[in-house]
Amino acid sequence: MATKPKLGQNFLHDAQAIQRIVAALGDCSHETVVEIGPGRGALTRALVSCVGRVLAIELDPRLAAKLRTEFPPERATVAQQDVLDFNFSSVPLEDGKRLAVVGNLPYYITSPILLKLAASHAALDRAVLMMQREVADRVAAEPESRDYGLLSVTVQMYGTVEKLFTLPPRAFSPPPQVHSCVVRWRFAPRFNSLGVDETTFLQFARQAFAQKRKTLANNLRAAGIAPGIILHALTSVGVDPQSRAEALPIEALAEIWKKLQKK
Questions:
Q1: Helix, coil or strand: residue 47
Q2: Whole-angstrom Cα distance, residue 87 to residue 95?
Q3: How many whole angstroms separate alpha carbon 138 and alpha carbon 135?
Q4: b/e string for 14-29 if b means 16 or more Cβ within 10 A?
Q5: pLDDT tens-digit series, residues 199-230
Q6: Fold topology of 193-262
Q7: Distance (Å, rounded) from C-alpha 37 to C-alpha 67?
Q8: pTM (2 decimals)?
Q9: I need a labelling partner for 181 at 20 to 30 A (CA). Which of 13, 54, 169, 227 fits?
């Protein structure tokens, strides 16, 4: 079956990598696992043998139809749908359980999918995701690194992220132009523990990282916050007014947000 480049179809065929991804999920023998973009079903075949139930979300109607003929519905349900429109909270679960997610994310919509998962965090326990290596570097980046930015802060506010392993283009068919990386994301939002409001803190983060070359103070001034208020907020939490957002850990950004809210 021919690939559709516009859907970002690069199918994983490395058997060892598939087993490592399944192992990274942990024991799912009594859990529902949502697979994003099963494609030709290489990872799905490994999942159905060791998880409670697979719910595969596939946008391509040809591939979705083929998957339905291969897997019995009691082991794998195939939803022909855009994952960005999928309601993770609608999946029936036993009391107290949350979903595990796995998938080889299409490169062209990786960030929107990550934001979708973040917005669906209440229904999710963990995710093992393959993505372009450069994006993985960003989501797992630490302060003062060149990759640390808005995506890093946004994703990490919803839980810890760790890079597991990297795969070369030859692990896929057709091979992409870039290396890929598998990450594990454990959902444990930090908003309450840091004492910040989810919506307004993320809005503040977008303002703080608006222009990478500008200082945090200049970015906040551009967002319409008075210079005096910014200076007071930064100095009261011990942050140099010439600092850039990229230099500040999430905890410091949370303290600045709280000072700004008081004003």
A1: helix
A2: 18
A3: 5
A4: beebbeebbebbeebe
A5: 999 999 999 999 988 999 999 999 999 999 99
A6: Helicase, Ruva Protein; domain 3 (1.10.8)
A7: 11
A8: 0.92
A9: 54
